[in-house]
Structure formats: C-alpha cells, structure tokens
Amino acid sequence: MQALDARADLLRHQRASLPELAEIATLQASRTDLDNRARDARITVDDLTVEQEKVDADVEAVKTRRRRDRDRMDQGLVTNPKDLERMGHELESLERRISSLEDEELEVMARLEDAQRDLDELVARVTEADHRLAELAAARDERLAVIDAELTSLEAERAPAVEGLPADLLALYGRLREQKGGIGAAELRQRRCTGCQLGIDNAEIAVIRAAPADDVIRCEECQRILVRTAESGL
Ligand SMILES: [Zn+2]
Fold first, then answer.
1. Cα 206 from Cα 208, distance rounded (Å)
2. How far is the CA of 199 from the centre of ligand 1 (A)?
3. C-beta separation of 111 from 119 below 8 A
4. What residue ranges of the chain are covered by domains with CATH 1.10.287.1490?
5. What is the whole-number distance in angstroms between the Cα of residue 180 and the centre of ligand 1?
6. Could you tell me which residues are beta bridge partners of residue 225?
7. CB 59 within 8 A of CB 51
8. Which stretches within 2-80 are classed as H helix?
9. What is the Å distance from ligand 1's center to 89 Cα?
C-alpha cells in the first residue's frame, strides 16, 4: 500500500506541475497584455477614422464653397469690381485652405495606416496566442487523462488493502505520511525500524512481542507505524 501511495503522490505532484501549466500561465499573461494593447490600438484607429472623416468633410465643404463662388462668377452674377476683387481674394484663400486641409488629410491617412497596421499585428498575435493556448490545453488535458486514469487504478488497487482497516489508523497513517516524507509505516525487520533505520532496544521488543497482533505499534524514534512480519526478530 505504501508503494501505491508513493506512486499516487508522485502522480499528484506531476499533475500539479505539468510543464504545460507554466507555459499556459506565461502565455495567458502575455495574451492579456496583447489584448489590452490591441484594445488601445483599436481606440486609436477609431479616433483617427473619425478625424479622417472630419478632414474629408472639411475638404468637401471648402470645395463646395469654391465651386459655388466660381459658378457665381462664371454666371456673371458678380459685376461690381470691388465684389469681384473680394471674390478673387476669397477664392485664393479657399485654395490655400483646400491645400492645407489636403495635406492634413494625407497626414491623418498615413497615421491611420500605421495604427491599422499595429492593430492588425496585435490582433494576429492574440489569435496566435489563442491558437497556442488551445494546443497547450489539449496537451495538458491529454496528460491529465493519463495521470487520472492511473490514479483511479491505483485507488482501485489500494481499496482491498484499505478495506477493513480502522478509519483512525488510516488517518494516523495519512498524517504520518505527510510529516515523514511520504512514509507513514515501516517494516520492523531484524529488530530495526526500516523507517528511521534505528534498532529497537530489548525492553521495547518485549513490549511489542507481548502486544496483540491488531495493536498499532509505533517506532519510539520516528513515530512511524511499525509493521510486524516474520522477519521482525520478535
Ligand atoms: Zn523509526
């Protein structure tokens, strides 16, 4: 039973320290970071899109005004020389405004392109991380299934050994296993505790010899449960 328990401990340890678990934790942290950056990048793209639409609309509005002024002049609606002169100045100023707005438009477009590229890259990296996380989760689950199947079969193997043992003895054994590096019971062999390797003195051997077979005997040195066999030297 001790060997079964030791194997089960090892499996439980493996279960808690699967290599995938550390990688999943690291990757999840970096995915969260990427996702936050992607969200920021999306906000930048949205802001620049709004800005671009605004500049586009401004350009269109000024062009509309220029067209209207030109039409009025072409249709001969402006005849007064002073008005003509003023209209000429206004058209010049509209041209300058259009040119500066178009520069701004190009600059916003370039920034939007950069932001969109950043966003696309981040989204691709999040997708890649998700993909890898799914692979790791599948590998982890596969390992867990193997470990759990063995744990279940160990449990089944252990059941007949445990059956009929008093609950308080099992509890003591479990407690000792935790305290004594996984070994809760040790064979008494040739008057020696195989848990701590110390010899048992004659007086104690006499006590053990006199004890009923179902008494729980403990090593005085290491406190482990001593298992009596034909090799105990009693
Ligand atoms: Zn001992």
1. 5
2. 8
3. no
4. 2-162
5. 10
6. 185, 218
7. no
8. 2-16, 19-74
9. 108
Record the pTM.
Answer: 0.66
CATH pick for 2-162 out of 1.10.287.1490, 1.10.3720.10, 3.90.650.10, 1.20.140.10: 1.10.287.1490
Contact 91, 3 (CB under 8 A): no
Neighbours of ion ligand 1 (CB under 5 A): 193, 195-196, 219, 221-222
Centre of ligand 1 to C-alpha 219, Å, is: 5
In this predicted model, what pLDDT tens digit does every residue of 145-194 receive, in sequence order? 999 999 999 999 988 888 888 899 999 999 999 999 889 999 999 999 99
Q: Would you say residue 35 has pLDDT above 90?
A: yes
From the centroid of its chain, how far is CA 224? 41
Task: List C-alpha distances in Å: 173 to 1, 21, 116, 151, 227.
Answer: 11, 31, 64, 19, 12
- SS3 state of residue 215: coil
Distances (CA, A) of 42 to 48, 66, 114, 202, 225: 10, 36, 12, 82, 66
Pairing of strands 185-189, 217-218: unpaired
Please state, in angstroms and as integers, the Cα–Cα distance from residue 106 to each residue in 93, 110, 187, following that order: 20, 6, 86
CA of 195 to the centre of ligand 1 (A): 5
Q: Give the whole-angstrom CA distance, residue 211 versus residue 226.
A: 12
For 74-120, write each residue's pLDDT tens digit.
998 888 999 999 999 999 999 999 999 999 999 999 999 999 999 99
